[in-house]
Write a structure and sequence with these properties.
By secondary structure, this protein is of the alpha/beta class. It is 43% helix and 14% strand. Strands 3-2-1-4-5-6-7 form a 7-stranded parallel β-sheet, with helices on both faces. α1 links the parallel β1 and β2.
Length: 260
């Protein structure tokens, strides 16, 4: 096998959740450039179509699934539909997640807590259960990549909504558990823990609250936030033959923020 073959995804099909924009979009484009056909989910058809057009421009097949994957019923239905309608999925990227609530622990409602846990953790469980379960039944191995966060490793300063840290920390341990269960079946399960990346959402936030982004960047040893395209090669590696002996691992990509 030549060097480039170790990172080739030719003949593979990948599902990336929450991939119409942000880091999901960047990973979908990177996997497509490496040769995979792509299935993406998102809540907005317009942004799904825009990303799908970019993937087609790379010469790959692409399918879009409009669904709010943060709602367990929609997530379960969408995953089941992908398996039934599109057939085998070789690579699953559970990318969905977000910090949407900034309140103290004592003020957060139970309903909000459950909603955020569903968004950041239950969606990962359901994707793994249904898409990963189909990999298991198929018996030809597979790759699962769970997008956690550096918030799984630390308590962020000056930010409430500890549901996010809790959910992402659970994603990390769920990754380890699934990796242990499915390693004998050739299915690897790994996690990526991104730091601050200048996605569209964070660029919008920076325009409104530049002091928040500036304060974060001051604590990044590299002195800058990440750009979305910089996460793509890591996702390609974990999805590729080059990572066949890597499972249960968590890769931090944060410019060194968690070093201090």
């Amino acid at each position: 096998m030549g060097f480039q073959d170790w990172f080739s995804l030719e003949g593979k099909r990948a599902l990336i959740t929450g991939a119409s924009r942000g880091l999901g979009r960047s990973m979908a484009l990177a996997l497509a450039e490496a040769g995979a056909d792509i299935v993406i989910t998102g809540r907005t058809q317009n942004t799904l179509d825009q990303t799908a057009d970019e993937i087609r421009a790379l010469g790959r097949n692409v399918w879009t699934v409009k669904a709010d994957m943060g709602k367990p019923e929609e997530c379960e239905s969408a995953c089941q539909d992908v398996v039934a309608r599109l057939g085998p999925v070789d690579i699953l990227v559970n990318n969905l997640g977000n910090r949407e609530i900034n309140v103290s622990i004592e003020k957060e409602t139970l309903a909000d807590w459950r909603q955020m846990i569903d968004l950041n953790l239950t969606s990962c469980f359901l994707g793994t259960k249904i898409i990963g379960g189909a990999m298991l039944e198929r018996g030809k191995g597979g790759r699962i990549i769970n997008i956690a966060s550096i918030s799984a490793l630390i308590a962020n300063r000056g930010i409430g909504g500890r549901d996010y840290e809790t959910g992402k920390a659970a994603v990390l341990h769920f990754t380890r558990c699934a990796a242990a269960d499915w390693a004998p079946h050739g299915i690897t399960v790994n996690a990526i823990c991104p730091g601050l990346f200048m996605t569209d959402i964070n660029r919008e936030w920076n325009e409104k609250h530049p002091e928040v982004i500036d304060a974060f960047v001051q604590n990044v040893p590299m002195g800058r936030p990440g750009e979305p395209h910089e996460i793509g090669p890591l996702a390609v590696f974990l999805a590729s033959p080059a990572a066949a002996y890597v499972t249960g691992a968590a890769y931090t990509i944060d410019g060194g923020y968690t070093l201090w």
